[in-house]
Please model this.
Amino acid sequence: MTSSDTTATAQIGVTGLAVMGSNIARNFAHKGYTVALHNRSVSKTDALLEAHGSEGKFVRSETIPEFLAALEKPRRVLIMVKAGDPTDAVINELADAMEEGDIIIDGGNSLFTDTIRREKAIRERGLHYVGAGISGGEEGALNGPSIMPGGPKESYESLGPLLEEISAHVDGVPCCTHIGPDGSGHFVKMVHNGIEYSDMQLIGEAYQLLRDGLGKSAGEIAEVFAEWNSGDLDSYLIEITAEVLRQVDAKTGKPLVDLILDEAEQKGTGRWTVKSALDLGVPVTGIAEAVFARALSGSVAQRTATTGLASGDLGTKPSDAARFTDDVSKALYASKIVAYAQGFNQIQAGSNEYGWDITPGDMATIWRGGCIIRAKFLNRIKEAFDEDANLPSLIVAPYFRSAIEDAIDSWRRVVVTATELGIPVPGFASALSYYDALRTERLPAALTQGLRDFFGAHTYGRIDADRDKRFHTLWSGDRSEVEA
Ligand code: NBP
Model:
């Protein structure tokens, strides 16, 4: 069969052939599947065939009817277009021409509530709809991403083997599994991205502490990260941090990182994670701090107006560089554990709220390879959830509990030193505060409740009464208490 044989019967179709779609189509072809290709602008289809047509069996198409005609039934079509309105436009065009039992898969970064809406609408038309989160960027798409497919279980039976085949594998286990119904796949992908934000913020803070706290150069810090990557912190993001810090600008001979504008951009999945967490009432402080830190870095007008404001008396830099570096690595690890604990709490809360029945340990399994947050310690997370699927928080699992016990003194020293030196560490500090708040027996929330009752008669519970009983003090009367 030639690379553009129009009589071929394809097992999978990909529409949307920008970076991600092209690479996933090639990944399918490398695994021996015949792949039908479609893109709104035909030039992209032709460019893909021109550059990579010889890598496998592809079927070229110019129109949606031509594209669908090339597919075996029930048809499986993967959409890889820009999230939002373009995805709706493509879904509608496909659904109009597809037949009962066909499967539409959205592999883009869609908002999970859009996926819930689309799945319902498509189901009512007799078709299957699978919202699949895909992580790993363009390299992962080509060589094996982490795939988080939601949607009906029966569509996974037909689709799962293909997706598992093109996904990354760790210890022979595919980084792809059925997550749950409707929007669950895009939900966990969203939380994955939120954790990624948090991870990157913490890495940035560690870098800044070594740079401004110890005066280390980018090259020196690169070596520290490379060393950390051989221990508990072993992960893709730590590995590539060393790579980015090592990079020297060809024009100036300076470290590239010293020449990049310090204004972090964002596409929105971190913000979505925080919005969803607010709705679910789950404190994802690490992710929220990361999203706000990016926003702050990009607040040019505020930063220009405030640079050089008083710092107050600053402390002295750490005299023992090796000890401080070790402290920073432990603070980074402990803060990272908190970020993942919060993300997994959000997955558990989302699963309960939307009735998805997600197995949290499965997320740890499929995030071990292919995706941006792949890390050695995901094995530990999987073990923790295997032992107790209803773990209230990762930080109480024996391994993580003792990892934090081992790190706690370093963690406090780092936050104190950062404060004394005027180095902002919103991720490290808020993770430590979250940890301290959780382990504190009595929080000031009792006073909050008292205040709420004072100005708004919102009532409160008492430590010496049944949990479901509510009380109110007659603040503007004789201040006696009544049961509400
Ligand atoms: P883009 O997100 O840049 O989207 C470009 C594609 O969307 C092109 O094929 C374009 O067709 C098509 N498209 C647009 Br724009 N509007 C359309 C419309 N109204 N009708 C039909 N097609 C339309 O591509 P990408 O970076 O490859 O990402 C694809 C999806 O994967 C996105 O949802 C993205 O969020 C997600 N994702 C990306 C990454 C990553 O690392 N880039 C990682 C994980 C997930 P055209 O060629 O005719 O303009």
Notes: Residues 1-5 have pLDDT under 50 and may be disordered. The chain has 19 helices and eleven strands.
